[in-house]
Amino acid sequence: MNGLLETLRSKLRSVADPEKAKVLQRFFKTGPGEYGEGDVFLGIQVPVLRKFARENRDLDDTSLQVLLRSSVHEERMLSLLILIQKYVRGTDEERKKIYDFYLVNTSFINNWDLVDLSAEHVVGHFLMRGSRRPLYQLAKSKSLWERRIAILATFHFIKQHEFSDALKIAASLLSDKEDLIQKAVGWMLREVGKRDLEAEERFLMKNYQKMPRTMLRYAIERFPEEKRKRYLKGGM
Fold first, then answer.
1. Worst-scoring range by mean pLDDT, 32-36, 117-121, 122-126?
2. Count of alpha carbons within 13 Å of 50, Cβ hemisphere only?
3. For 126, which of 42, 52, 99, 226 could close a Cys bridge (C-beta 3.0–4.6 Å)?
4. What span, in angstroms and rounded, lies between the C-alpha atoms of 223 and 211?
5. Cβ atoms of 180 and 148 closer than 8 Å
6. Is the dihedral of CA 85, 124, 160, 155 positive or negative?
7. How far apart are CA 228 and CA 4, in angstroms?
8. Beta bridge partners of 40
9. Which residue, 156, 117, 159, is CA-closest to 135?
């Protein structure tokens, strides 16, 4: 391992908070059989990690891979934060390399916060000008995290007022049993609604009766109370 990486890891551990780590271990469901089983936390807040990312944004690719494949949650997050910075500053060729690297390493982007901070900025941005087919392949994956990447990547499209792929992928995930997918789909539907309420409601009118309750609740969170009640009671 190179000296810069060793130094960075030492600095991370110097700001670790064991008590905060215990809280995060519970919050991110790291117990046996839970979605984050085995994940290890140091107890470092995200703003601190963002500062480390700015200070180490030129970290080499080999070191970034070591961090991303670490058992330590904050090291994986730091790697992703640096990758996003590199992506933003990169050439088209460099962005393609980062996008490919991201997809090869999805098994290490394995908690919801890691997906949420990165998918739209790398996968969504990269696919904005090209084929969206990779998202539909991810949406069919057996991996919870790859399915979440698929729907969260569409956040970039939604912010550009392009809703078609978000709605199609949402439809493909209507029967998903995972709570973290139901929440993510409902969240993206709500984001569509912030920009085009009619588009969201057309989707809901077609699908709300077969949507999981969690997904529906997230999707209609900002609706007036009476309208929320009608949707939840199936009386639209």
1. 32-36
2. 5
3. 99
4. 17
5. yes
6. negative
7. 53
8. 72
9. 156
DSSP state, residue 40: B
The closest alpha carbon to 43, from 26, 67, 19, belongs to 19
Q: Which tens digit of pLDDT belongs to each residue from 183-233?
A: 999 999 999 999 999 999 999 999 999 999 999 999 999 999 999 999 998
Give Cα 26 distance to the centre of its chain.
Answer: 19
- Once rounded to an integer, what is the mean pLDDT over residues 165-172? 98
Identify the burial level of 100 via C-beta atoms within 10 angstroms of its C-beta, where 0-12 means exposed, 13-18 middle and 19 or more buried: exposed
Instruction: Give me the amino acid identity at 28.
Output: F
Give the chain's length. 236
Whole-number Å distance between alpha carbons of 205 and 236: 8
Residue identified by tokens 């939604």 is: 158
Using DSSP's 3-state secondary structure scheme, residue 114 falls into helix
Q: Which helix (H) or strand (E) is 67 found in, with range?
A: helix 61-68
CB 200 within 8 A of CB 189: yes
Cα separation, 38 vs 30, whole angstroms: 5
pLDDT in tens, 59-72: 999 999 999 999 99
Q: 């060729």: which residue's tokens?
A: 93
Report the predicted TM-score, pTM, of the whole model to 2 decimal places.
0.95
Q: Which residue type does 96 have?
A: K
Q: What is the model's pLDDT at position 3?
A: 83
